Amino acid sequence: MKKILLLFLVLFSLIGCTVYKTIKIESQPSGVNINKGGVFVGKTPFEMKVGAGDVFFCTPSYWSFELEASPPANFTPINKTINPCAVPNNSKVFFNFGGTNFGGNLDSNRNLQIGAPSTTASISVDIGQDLPNTKENNRDAIAVVIGNRDYQKAKNVEFAINDAQAIRLYLTEVLGYRNGNILYKENATKGDFELFFGNKETTEGKLYDYVKPGRSDVFVYYSGHGAPGLRDKKGYFMPVEADPNYVELGGYSADVLYKNLSQLPAKSLTVVLDSCFSGAGILKNISPMVVQIENPILNMTNAVVLTSSQGSQVSSWYNEKKHGMFTYFFLKAIHDKNADFNKDNKLSYDEIFRFVSDSADGVPYYARREHSVIQTPTIEGQYMDKTLVQYK
Asked: What's the pTM?
């Protein structure tokens, strides 16, 4: 069996598929059988290479995954503990292998099928090609980009990963950010939010450590669910594992995010949110709510916040373009210079907002036309007249 397994792994290595990773399967208690494709391969703890199409039989109570590069060399190991045996039959199970997302189905025989990676970009052609030439070279700029699509206890946000990947593309190719300065995460957990932004006790998360005082422009983007706290009426970002009915416990507080961002020693701060906090669509038998959010950023002279909707409104998708409605028009404003209303070859935040929020050609019109909903983007802060991008 060992020789067969070794040959199996060697053959996989020769194929050269970049999505294969080394996986360590542990259980509580240890010593349970691990089956691959119905064939016994060892007892926990057990290590092997996995990739798209690998199948494991659901016998351990808990599986702990420790993954490493094989390739790419710059892969960052992560730990992920799940309990697939507790998931109902025919349900989807999602893993994040160091930034690469894998989806799986737990079938009626309790087999967990790891599917193909879900990180392939599907950026709309009219904003994903022929990107504009700019004069931007912002080597000290730092960004956090989060796209939460695959929710465990709420409906998926279909195009959130498309949005996140498109934003990352524009940051590097249009706005002059370096790839290594972008903290990028698909399907972020609460731990990921706290890692990037800190928590209620400490403001100094990973983003804080990346910022060069007085030199770094900071750009924060989020696409995914938001939800209202049913008890405290506050706004929360929804990590992919959070229960919207208990978001005060499992969500990431918008108040904490804004408070911690306001403590950054940044040159400037831009926050772009394609999300709503009304609870519409994810909370059953409850009317949409208007949440209360404390935002000290609005008092800063070097910060601006753009959001996809307001009050009890929903944030809709542009199905034809495969993006969130707000994100599509935000990038469209930059792509075609459509928002350069004064023709000075520069785009200010105010110009971008004017384009996005246009009642005849922007988000409000297409949200009503496509979904028969009212969606009104917002802009706040004292930095809205500043330039985001300068064209060549």
From this structure: 0.70
